[in-house]
């Protein structure tokens, strides 16, 4: 039920853009939902095993088991950590600050702990002791809320670092028109116009969405020169999304060997500072997992671009500082964003094309998850989305600026380059892996007790 309610929009994407009939799209989405539900099944089996041995007190292990299956969802089969439990608190800022210490998994642990103690009250014999775990959980929640409120109120990270005015371009280009040759020139000219508008409003750095150019940036010299000219004449760097081709040269023959979903940075002098290649590809969007088994999804397999995954969490230079770029749903991978910080990223940027999602809950889910990364890493996050939501989030998860979906918009606001690291940025998902150890230990102890 949970994954049906949060992933229902996948059916629309595959039917509308994957060339599948409605029933095949529903079937494939049902398989995805069923796969995701397997993790919850594992959780219930683990908790059942522990409570069979330890009685109702075994429910106290349930929060750790839940975080363990979320960790599995993040990494097994390349991972799909969409809408983890902790994201339910992304707009409850005092609670969400816990992510700056132990990541989104710690927020999941806190939410699951409250639920587990309530379940313990429901199934335990009526005595005073059954309320003790709940009292402890409530005390922890209050403690986190008080600490988190003070952290947000102090907002120390908003008073340090060098400020920069960022211009976010939301072109609102319909996915069906994106690669229409008849519309390509008009789309590109509109992006150039909006870029000039952002610069006129004081933008010192302009960000375009994912795959924003209706051509390959490195291959269409005429289009690329127009972007370079704006950057050069205004002395403003531009970050843009465009597909990239890796060529194989043999003699006088040149053939395309790989395609990448990439981001390019054009310096203020008009030259290319570098590029970042997307490392986590979207299943059923940029590659089809288990192609041999999904033989009935032929049109989808043909429609999905033959993208390859990048391998380097490269940083790009802006105004003497280093920034990182997460493309599309890469931003839901905490460990990847932490790699950027470890390399020295001072500003998180994320570019995406959420036109695929339509008017569903997916664009809102995506934005909330991106906001959590700002809290975890103690960085400003700027997000440019083709159809929204574009916005600027401060290191405490406060949304400073945001757009509506399916509206063309130019958004200019202030962010800051920061270098201070949070505890999570320095130490990572130690609490998540501790949860894994605790879960395995509880199962092992239970097994030994059963044998005795």
Task: Summarize, please.
The protein is α/β, with parallel strands linked by helices. It has 15 helices and 12 strands. The chain has 2 domains: 2-156 and 428-451, no CATH class; 161-419, Nitrilase/N-carbamoyl-D-aminoacid amidohydrolase.
Kindly describe this structure.
A hairpin with a 5-residue loop joins strand 9 and strand 10. The chain is built from 15 helices and 12 strands. The two termini are 39 Å apart. With 452 residues, the chain is an alpha/beta fold. The chain has 2 domains: 2-156 and 428-451, no CATH class; 161-419, Nitrilase/N-carbamoyl-D-aminoacid amidohydrolase (4-Layer Sandwich), CATH 3.60.110.
What topology emerges from the helices and strands here?
Blueprint: H1 2-7, H2 9-17, H3 22-54, H4 62-75, H5 93-96, H6 99-102, H7 104-123, H8 132-154, E1 162-170, H9 181-200, E2 205-207, H10 221-234, E3 238-250, E4 253-266, E5 272-277, H11 298-303, E6 316-318, E7 321-327, H12 334-343, E8 347-352, H13 362-377, E9 381-385, E10 391-393, E11 399-402, E12 409-417, H14 423-427, H15 430-451
Parallel strand pairs: 1-2, 2-3, 7-8, 8-9
Antiparallel strand pairs: 1-12, 3-4, 4-5, 6-7, 9-10, 10-11
Helix pairs in contact: 2-3, 3-4, 3-15, 4-7, 4-15, 7-8, 9-10
Characteristic terms for this protein:
6-stranded mixed sheet; 2 domains; Nitrilase/N-carbamoyl-D-aminoacid amidohydrolase; 452 residues
